[in-house]
Structure formats: C-alpha cells, structure tokens
C-alpha cells in the first residue's frame, strides 16, 4: 500500500502545503524489457529521492514519494490525482533518464492539469544535459541541473530563483524566455550530506530477483561520486570526473542508518567504489571493527585495475559476497578506442583473484563499440570463457546524449534518430547505424554471447555446484525458464 497522504501539514503564503512530492516514473525499468536481463532487474527505492527527501525535511518541508514503477491496482492517472489532491504540494519533482524524458513531460503535464499552481521540477541526467528541452513544453516550471541537494535546499529556503546556481526557468510567470543560471559547484565534502530518508518509501513494496540478491528488501547506497576516467559511453555531466567520497566512518554510519529502516541487504551504486583503494579497504575495516553483520554487494562496478587480494579478502570478511567489474571488451584495441584505461591482463588478474578468494563476480561487457568487428566480439566471448565470471552480462552500445560517443557519432551522421523513447538498452538499432557492422550481425553475437557463456558445460557445472552450496538451484531454474521467451 502507498503511504497515506495527509492534507494538512503547514500552509505557506500561497495557500499550498509546505510539502513536496517526488514522482518516480512508471516505465523506469522498461529500459531493460525484451532482454534476457529483464528477469534480474531490481525494483528498489531510488537513492536520489531518499537523499532529496532528507534535504526537504531539513528545510521544513514534508516530502512524499509516489513511485509509479511499483505496480498497483489503481491506474497511473488515478494514483497521481490522489497524490496531488491528498497532499496539495507546493512542488512536484520528477526525475528521468533519456528514454523516459517524454514520459516525464507527460506526467508533468498531467500534474498541471490536476492543479496548475503546483510548481513542477525536472531533474536527473537528461534534464541536466538538455534543460532547455525540458522547459520548452511549458509543463515544467523549473529544471535542476547537476547535483540537486544544494539547489533544492536553496529553492525551498525561498531564495530568489534568479540567484540559485544550477537551475533553469522561464521568465514572466512561465511565458517568457528560458533562463539557465550558471552551473553549481560540486559538493566538496559528501559527509556534509544528510542521511538518506527512506521513511518516504514502503520498503516492503520492493523486490529484487534472487539472481541479484540474497535477502530482500534491498537498499541502494552511494559511498562516492564522480569518476576520473574517460570512457566514451559514460555521461559525466552530473558528478564530473573528480572523485569525491564519503569517509569510512560516514559510510558505515550510513549503512547502520539504512539497516535501521528494515532493509536486509545493501547494494553499492558507486561509479568506482575502489577508485581510492585505501579508502575502500578502510570501509571494510570499519565494518569489521564495529562487528556489523551486513550482507552487501558492489552492484555498479569496480575497475579491474583497482583490485588487489587484500581488498577482496577484506570485502569477503565484511559481508560483501559479490562485485561487478567493467570488462567491456576482450580486445585491447577496442578498450583503448573507448578510453577504458585497463588492459586484458589486468582483467584476467582481477577475476583470477576474485575466484581464488571466493567472491562472486559479474562481468559487464558491451558489443557494438566503435571499430567493432566479428572477430573482436568473438574475443569478448572467448575472454568470458577464460575468466569464468559468476554472471556474464552483455549489452549493446547505447550512445546516450551527453556522452563523447554520442557527440562523435552525431557529428559524423551516424545517429539516425533523436526520438528519446527509442534510446532503450538492448534495442539501440532504432537510433544509429553502426559504422562497421550490420544489425543482423550485432544481434547474432548478442545471442551467441549468452548461449556460449551460460549454456556451456563448464558454466553449468560451476553454477550447479554454487547453487547447491547457496540453496539457489530452484531460483536459477525458475529464472532460466523465464528467459526462454527471448530465445537463446
């Protein structure tokens, strides 16, 4: 059940409640539909909304979250209507990625239809990249560009929007020209952020498939922001290329804080948890020092050249059972072309160490990269067979706006469409023509990757042994059957 939304909180001079409603869009997980990995996609509370809710509370506002990705009996329109009428919010914030930008605009328009006095705010990656586009339809009153915490803080404090860095708006009550204020400086000390507020979520409405967790419910967590490396398929417009991190004490304080809400497992969603290798080890040591019993998983990736045996052993001792490593390609020239700044030998060493220590691994791979050939795609498959990850995972390159590869291919005329709803992972052929491969070949190797890596006798034998040890045999069989409709 969604949390009850009480009408009377505090009334401001506009007659609105001092409240803010954050909306998570209904199609948030649809970027993975029609792909094998759709059976493993986690449904978890958005950490960004937990963080922004904490900021709103400190400014004397009552935050609410309407997560439309959690399916209910009522229609989406009914749920939005009930929320707006029940809360009477002053602001409504909607965050979205590129493929959800049209849906975000439609939801904002519907909010305005219910109550045109609600101030709608666009945020997230796509709004940061294209703030003028978000404001052009007039369904959004404001756009938050980049990190949102300090911008929201100033907005809710009543500061003149013309003097708030990192914000866009329209003049003359929304009927004039679009104004984009100067960029906001990045938050220097992440320890200064308030603890995320997960009280705005009904955490038991969320579920992560057992392929991706050991215990439910699962919470996402960030311990750092930014990545100093320059992979051409990554967007660095929000957190930048400067690595900022929370201290080990703050990280473990936050873990304890998250567990106090009733979460049973924590997934780290950093761009690079171990970018500072010493800090990563100190986080583990702090968990061990406090004797904190925690099940955790580094879900969003570690660089192969930022791993050593000591870190892996500390991770395992502190309750981390799995790490994800960005491999991308089995060909060194491709890795160099995408500015990955890792080598095939570093990748092999990282997986060898993880297998020896007993940490599970996910290998993130990609095909359809620049200069890709059938030979290089086969080399990626061959590398998976050699390094033996617990789960090999493949996607087809999606040149999202705001990334160097989008800019490069757009200038060359390779991008064929800027209809953002088609920028869906695993179905990118609708938006660009690959310069060296036809789509029939790319799709053939997409299926071949999973068939060769997950249906070979060695993988199946290791998986069955692992499943007997962990009690996951039933779940693996269940999820395998669910993938059959996508073909092997």
What does this structure look like?
The protein has 17 helices and 15 strands. It has 488 residues and is α/β, with parallel strands linked by helices. It has 2 domains: 17-180, Rossmann fold; 208-454, tm_1862 like domain (pyruvate-formate lyase- activating enzyme). The strands form 3 sheets. It has a 7-stranded mixed β-sheet, with helices on both faces. Strands 8-11-12-13-14-15 form a 6-stranded parallel β-sheet. Helix 2 packs across helix 3. The longest helix is centred in the last third of the chain and has 16 residues, at 439-454.
Keywords summarizing the entry:
single chain; about 500 residues; alpha/beta; Rossmann fold; pyruvate-formate lyase- activating enzyme; 2 domains; 15 strands; globular
CATH superfamily of the largest domain: tm_1862 like domain
Q: What is the number of independent domains?
A: 2
CATH level 3 topology of the largest domain: pyruvate-formate lyase- activating enzyme
State the total count of DSSP E strands.
15
Q: How many distinct helices? A: 17
Low-confidence stretches: none
Seen as an oligomer or otherwise, the chain set is single chain
Mean pLDDT: 92
* Terminal Cα span: 38 Å
Q: Order of strands across the biggest sheet?
A: 2-1-3-4-5-6-7
Q: Radius of gyration from the CA trace?
A: 23 Å
Q: What is the CATH C level class of the largest domain, in words?
A: Alpha Beta
CATH architecture of the largest domain: Alpha-Beta Horseshoe
The chain-level structural class is alpha/beta
Q: State which percent range the strand residues make up.
A: 15-25%
Profile the largest sheet.
7 strands, mixed
């Amino acid at each position: 059940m969604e949390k009850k939304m009480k009408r009377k909180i505090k009334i401001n001079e506009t007659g609105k409640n001092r409240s803010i409603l954050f909306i998570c869009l209904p199609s948030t997980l649809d970027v993975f539909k029609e792909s094998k990995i759709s059976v493993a996609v986690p449904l978890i509370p958005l950490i960004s909304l937990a963080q922004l809710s904490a900021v709103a509370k400190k400014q004397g506002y009552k935050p609410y979250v309407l997560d439309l990705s959690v399916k209910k009996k009522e229609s989406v329109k009914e749920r939005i209507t009930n929320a707006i009428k029940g809360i009477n919010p002053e602001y409504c914030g909607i965050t979205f990625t590129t493929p959800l930008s049209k849906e975000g605009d439609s939801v904002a328009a519907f909010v305005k239809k219910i109550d045109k006095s609600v101030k709608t705010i666009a945020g997230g990656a796509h709004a940061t990249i294209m703030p003028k586009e978000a404001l052009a339809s007039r369904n959004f009153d404001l756009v938050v560009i980049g990190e949102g915490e300090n911008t929201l803080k100033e907005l809710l404090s009543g500061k003149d929007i013309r003097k708030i860095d990192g914000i866009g708006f329209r003049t003359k009550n929304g009927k004039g020209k679009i104004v984009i204020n100067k960029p906001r400086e990045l938050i220097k000390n992440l320890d200064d952020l308030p603890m995320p507020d997960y009280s705005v979520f009904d955490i038991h409405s969320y579920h992560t498939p057992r392929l991706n967790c050991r215990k439910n419910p699962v919470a996402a967590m960030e311990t750092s922001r930014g990545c100093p490396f320059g992979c051409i398929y990554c967007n660095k417009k929000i957190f930048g290329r400067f690595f900022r991190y929370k201290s080990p004490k703050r990280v473990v304080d936050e873990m304890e804080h998250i567990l106090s809400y009733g979460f049973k497992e924590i997934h780290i969603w950093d761009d690079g948890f171990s970018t500072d290798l010493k800090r990563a080890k100190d986080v583990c040591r702090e968990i061990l020092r406090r004797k904190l019993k925690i099940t955790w998983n580094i879900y969003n990736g570690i660089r192969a050249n930022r791993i050593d045996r000591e870190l892996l052993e500390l991770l395992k001792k502190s309750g981390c059972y799995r790490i994800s490593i960005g491999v991308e390609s089995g060909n060194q020239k491709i890795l160099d072309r995408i500015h990955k700044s890792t080598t095939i030998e570093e990748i092999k060493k990282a997986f060898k160490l993880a297998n020896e220590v007993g940490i599970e691994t996910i290998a993130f791979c990609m095909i359809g990269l620049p200069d890709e050939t059938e030979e290089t795609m086969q080399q990626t498959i061959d590398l998976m067979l050699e390094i033996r990850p617990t789960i090999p995972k493949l996607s087809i390159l999606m040149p999202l706006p705001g990334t160097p590869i989008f800019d490069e291919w757009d200038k060359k005329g390779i991008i064929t469409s800027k209809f953002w709803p088609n920028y869906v992972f695993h179905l990118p052929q609708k938006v660009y023509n690959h310069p060296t491969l036809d789509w029939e070949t790319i799709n053939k190797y997409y299926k071949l990757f999973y068939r060769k890596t997950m249906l070979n006798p060695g993988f199946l034998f290791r998986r069955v042994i692992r499943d007997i040890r962990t009690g996951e045999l039933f779940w693996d069989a269940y999820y395998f059957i669910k993938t059959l409709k996508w073909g092997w």
